[in-house]
Design brief:
The structure is a single chain. The chain has 5 domains: 135 residues, no CATH class; 101 residues, Immunoglobulins (Immunoglobulin-like, Sandwich); 149 residues, Jelly Rolls; 108 residues, Immunoglobulin-like (Sandwich), CATH 2.60.40.2550; 89 residues, Immunoglobulin-like. The chain is 0% helix and 51% strand. It is built from no helices and 47 strands. Strands 3, 4, 5, 6, 7 and 10 form a 6-stranded antiparallel sheet that branches. Strands 19, 22, 23, 25, 26 and 30 form a 6-stranded antiparallel sheet that branches. Strand 27 and strand 28 form a beta hairpin.
């Protein structure tokens, strides 16, 4: 227990009289700032401790500062205490706070901070945002929260009919609390599977519901929902994913495709998707430069309400090399490029006119091409896998396996996607800079409007979920809108963060590849490099920090300027007379700046101790005045 009004749990004997904001990485850390200021124990001052048990059986420990004075105000005495409860709650109580602003916290810090000064909760710093009040208490307590953090299974975009689909999710919840996780499988707005697992949370728990066998072909949604008594954040209680189920058979040993040079049938290096054999642009060797190779499927009849062509594939292309899928309804006389609604193209290539294509590298994926619009336009359809390489690229190539047309009830709802999402570029100031989060989302349907769910998440340096906001937006066919998330996000920990924005229709969305947008950003504690020198970030709002306060001999002014402006910085005495001008219509670019006042007037003479006022204003309309006590 420091004589300057804070409790330190680091095992070191700190006695720092100059208070800092919270969080702050300089020592002392690992502390409870009950009333951190330049205090002094005089005659009649004492520190008392007592322990006990609440009527509910919770043990507690009290540390009381009784009749403690101030170094600069020996006639003022205050009494306050901290109560530490066994359940982790902390109560700070203030009985007697004297008669002026200083004794009510105008130059103090109140809050709690972790062991390395990267995370903290600050109630006030130098009297902001408000002073302490006598006979009031401040309580810090743990909030219970449970969240679905990750869906491990199902992990595939498609499964054959009659195959068991695993259902596994990860829950992050307050340890030692009882948590329930519900798993539902939904198709065509009908709940086909519903199971609940209840367990005692350990912090991060993986919950396995076993497997589910879909009864028919179609699109299925898997919805995981977590619940816990006292859950304070219901926005992170749900997470969902979708998969398709298809039906077809194709012999593993019957290579009846029509091919050009280059495509081979057999056992490919790295294996087939299922069984032994598959088609590949080379079973054991890399493809050649300047390839223009095609693989044509057998003819399939077109009938039913929702026929879908399904195929499994993986690829490894270099440079501009790429592959596309084409379709013909006149036995190959003409070909039309088609794009899968699930497992679609992942880039563009100049070898196909800078249009969408499969490029780069991908492990096995299942792709679905909806044929519903072509029923009645012809009796049969054939498909062509078309691969091209440039004059320099060589890699392993394209492997095609388990292909065919599924004719069973395959309903494709509206597709929604994320175009982009905003994130503050570069470093931002931990605990001080606010993120305004937005995302542009679209409805690619040509005929149907509807409601779409948009979720923004931010994961911290430790991988934990620190922010989640969910919005429901109504989108007309083909419409793109900007979604604004509330509340704003203020990071409290330095390190690398990840922004993730997810969009989906209210029940399911078949095109999963465009549903998620991610971006990385870094949070760092940033200070200006030198007097009047721009810092390393651009702030989001105008702000002025004055410290220490009270000051002995000199004071520092930190200025956050979100835009370029002409700035005036002046020091006034209590009569309103200008004592010192630190900046006079000085043009500054947007950034962080540091100014200092050495306690002298414009002629270099030391001013007397007392109350002074700092005034900062710009020609852009920004203005702030702060009270400063100068000591000798």
């Amino acid at each position: 227990a420091s004589t300057n009004g804070y409790l330190c749990f680091s095992g070191e004997d700190y006695d720092d009289y100059s208070n800092d904001p919270i969080p702050y990485q300089w020592s002392p850390n690992d502390l409870i700032a009950v009333f951190w200021d330049d205090l002094k124990f005089r005659d009649g001052s004492h520190l008392d401790t007592i322990s006990g048990v609440t009527p509910e059986g919770v043990r507690y420990f009290v540390i009381e500062y009784d009749s403690v004075s101030f170094y600069a105000y020996p006639e003022q005495f205050i009494t306050f205490e901290a109560i530490l409860y066994e359940d982790g709650s902390i109560v700070l109580q203030y009985l007697d706070l004297g008669t002026n602003d200083i004794t009510h916290g105008a130059s103090a810090t109140v809050g709690i901070e972790n062991q390395d000064g990267t995370i903290g909760l600050q109630y006030l710093y130098d009297g902001e945002p408000f002073l302490l009040i006598e006979e009031r208490a401040i309580k810090f307590f743990r909030l219970n929260d449970a969240a679905v953090a990750e869906i491990i299974e199902p992990s595939e975009t498609g499964y054959p009919l009659n195959q068991a689909v695993p259902l596994i999710a990860v829950v992050r919840a307050t340890p030692s609390e009882e948590v329930s996780l519900e798993a539902k499988v939904i198709s065509e707005e009908v709940v086909l599977f519903d199971s609940v697992v209840t367990f005692t949370a350990t912090g991060t728990d993986t919950v396995d519901f076993g497997t589910y066998i879909p009864p028919y072909c179609g699109i299925y949604q898997v919805l995981f929902t977590v619940s816990m008594e006292g859950d304070v954040n219901p926005d992170n209680d749900e997470m969902s994913t979708s998969f398709g189920v298809y039906r077809f058979t194709y012999p593993d040993n019957l290579p009846v495709f029509e091919t050009t040079a280059g495509w081979e049938f057999g056992e490919p290096e790295g294996g087939a998707y299922a069984g032994t054999n598959a088609w590949a642009t080379g079973l054991t060797t890399n493809y050649e430069p300047n390839a223009d190779w095609t693989l044509v499927t057998p003819s399939y009849p077109l009938y039913g309400e929702h026929p879908v062509f399904v195929f499994h594939h993986r690829f490894e292309f270099s440079d501009e090399d790429a592959g596309i899928v084409e379709m013909s309804m006149d036995d190959g006389a003409t070909w039309v490029k088609v794009e899968p609604v699930i497992g679609g193209y992942n880039g563009t290539s100049p070898l196909f006119g800078d249009e969408a294509a499969y490029v780069g590298t991908s492990d096995w994926m299942t792709s679905f091409i909806d044929l519903s619009d072509y029923v009645g336009a012809g009796d049969n359809v054939i498909f062509r896998f078309h691969f091209r390489s440039n004059d320099s690229g060589e890699a392993f190539g394209w492997v095609i396996d388990d292909y065919g047309v599924s004719y069973g009830g395959f309903e494709l709802p509206n597709d929604a996607g994320v175009v982009t999402a905003s994130v503050v570029p570069g470093a931002v100031l931990a605990g001080a800079t606010t993120h305004h989060l937005t995302a542009d989302v679209f409805n690619s349907s040509l005929s149907s409007a509807g409601n779409f769910i948009v979720v923004a998440k931010i994961f911290g340096p430790d991988g934990m979920l620190y922010y989640r906001s969910q919005k429901t937006v109504y989108l007309e066919p083909g419409e793109v809108v900007t979604v604004y998330f509330q509340p704003d996000f203020v990071p409290m920990m330095v390190g690398d963060y990840r922004l993730e924005v997810i969009v989906a229709s209210s029940l399911n969305d078949p095109v999963l590849e465009n549903n998620t947008y991610t971006a990385d950003f870094t949070v760092a504690i940033t200070k200006a490099l030198a007097d009047n020198e721009v810092g390393r970030t651009v702030p989001l709002k105008f702000d002025v920090k004055l410290y220490p306060n009270p000051a002995v001999a000199s004071a520092t002014i930190d200025l956050a300027l979100p835009h370029s402006a002409s700035v005036d910085i002046k020091i006034y005495d209590a009569s309103g007379r200008v004592v010192r001008t630190l900046a006079n219509r000085k043009h500054l670019d947007a950034g962080y700046y540091t100014f200092s006042w050495d306690g002298t007037d414009g002629f270099g003479r030391k001013v007397s101790a007392g109350v002074y006022f700092l005034e900062v204003h710009t020609d852009a309309g920004d203005h702030m005045t702060s009270r400063l006590v100068l000591l000798k």
